Amino acid sequence: MQVIQINSITQVNSADWNRLAGVDYPFLRHEFLLAMEQSGSASEETGWLPAHLLVMDNDELVGLMPLYLKQHSSGEFVFDQQWAQAYEQHGLDYYPKWLTAIPLTPCQGARIVAKAGVDLGDVTKLMLTFIKQLSEQLGISSWHCLFPVEPQAELLRSLGLSIREGVQFQWFNKDYRNFDDFLQTLSASKRKMLKRERRRVGEQGISLLRIAGPNVSDQQWQLFFEFYTMTYLKRGSRPYLNLAFFQQIAATMGEQLLLVLAINNDKTVGAALSFVGADTLYGRYWGCFEEYNSLHFEACYYQGLEYCIQHGLQRFDSGAQGEHKIARGFEPVTTYSAHWLKDPRFAKAVEDFVVREQKAVQLYKQDAASYLPFKENN
After folding, report:
1. 30: which of 37, 100, 126, 359 lies 20 to 30 Å off by Cα?
2. What is this structure's pTM?
């Protein structure tokens, strides 16, 4: 087996890539990563230079890993800017760095994939050796793997990488028959709160419409993008993604998209976009022009919970951050990232840091769980 590096996902056949990566996890699909590149959202200009790795056995693709050469730490959701500052203070360059991640997408999933029957450990070791050798040749400081599933994080730990933990909040479907069935598992006060929030949306004259990706019109995509952009403009920043990205994924993987529109007096006033995996709904993007009482909770959470229940999805991953999700039944889960730093002094400092940080993260996770709204017997 040998490792080949490519500078665009266009250099690998989509059917070959998806044969290994599958389509159950939408963000590793060839179509998703291609849209990131072709729309310019993940490009050299935005500081996300594609550098994907393929493992070939003669002419057969038997392993793959998304990889980017990063010039900054924006859009990663695992914060290492202080590490970069430490490098700078010592007269060293932290950037560029290697990054294995789904651009701008803090959702756990496989990050290294091997063909069935090929040992994932062997493929991973081969890729890691390649990255280390290339880092020496090109003077690149480090490699970071963000939001791998736990078994892959443990594999990387066994290969000597530092494993950093974080916390996200996710909802789990416990064989609920309908939304009311879910409500019955909550304490009386939290059940009343959720009912009140849903009622307030209706009292403002707002109705919600869920549209499967293939049925979303061009006009509705344009509207959604305007709402999405507004989320960033309100914070004084520019959106990471552009309209071309959303139009491309709508055309190439629309069956895995779910758009929720909020409508008031025949006027669309907000929108939320989710991705549909094999057993998970991934809530990703949201926006509105004007603020409405409880609309964010309804469009981004309750519509998604109903969809999961109706379609038998087991999990709702609504993205990073958001302690307000706890009161609405989203449970704290551990996320992982893996880090290799070429300089042994900084590698030791980072390992010491993540060990100390891990204790604080685990205490935070326990504390967050104590605020979950479920009745004691659930």
Report:
1. 126
2. 0.95
